[in-house]
# Entry
Amino acid sequence: MKISVVKDILEANDRIAQENRAIFDEKGLVVFNLMSSPGAGKTSLLEKTIDGLKDHLRMGVIEGDIQSSQDAERIARKGIPVVQINTGGACHLDGNMIRDTFKSFNFDDLDLLVVENVGNLVCPAEFQVGEDFKVMILSVPEGEDKPSKYPLMFHESKVLLINKIDLLPYVDCNIETIKEQALKVNPHLTMFEISCKTGEGLDAWYSWLKEAVRSRGVDLKGK
Amino acid sequence: MAPAWWESQWVFIVHEMSIAQSLIDILREEMVKHDAGTLRSARLHIGQLSAIVPDSLSFCFEVMTSGTELEGAKLIMEIIPLKGTCRDCKHTFEIQDYTFECPECSSTEIDTIAGQNLSIVEMEVD
# Structure
């Protein structure tokens, strides 16, 4: 017997993500999902961003890793609330894992929550967690062919941070080609060239992020 | 409940494992609804833009259904090409080479209308 069923396979996760989103919205909390391959600089970016915006907004972080709590310890040293999720093998975070962290935060004390996903250029793009938007990092040593090889993540992201530009003199990577390739896959992508090592370009990212949080109705301290 | 082996091992698990689990949950639910005992096959539509490798999904499905009422069921997967509609000139076209630009008017205001989702469309049961 043939049964016709038209169902999205990721429906269960999407539903949980929507429930998460409703909770974030109710608390006036802006949430972004930070994705990249391993070693592109997600935790370094967060360390810098926490310092750069500490006088303006109250941040919390969810750290996703297959194993270890090293990243959460790095964030905790900055004195902000952080929860580590160890996926124990899974290559991405999903809506359910994010929901399980809610009891560890007081959302009333936060303006911005960052979900640092498991380092992986493929899987995290497929699973919503309830975020307002996705931010991805591509570091220049990874090469300019990544947008065409991994189109989904570039297509789904609102912001692309091109990191480690201090290494440009040493690697065979043309930053203009990265941008051109990324814009083909996602013509609305906002891009910043940054170096978490030297701090170059980070001010523009901070300004963009402050504006993104403010535009969602969150009242920021200072300017 | 004790974790299944794929949840407890220190291995790098592909996301097809999670997808297979969601798929199995939906298939079971539909089988109960239709009072079916055996699953012969399930037909899936896999969007070109989705990051799914059909062979990995088949492998995960086979491993995870082994010894259950779903064992032996065949997954028939069809890759759905990426299609978009231009918001400006309303032209509908197949998106080539992941380039989100209208071939008629060069607009980049493109709504994806097919090729991004993963869905189950049909099941054959006894």
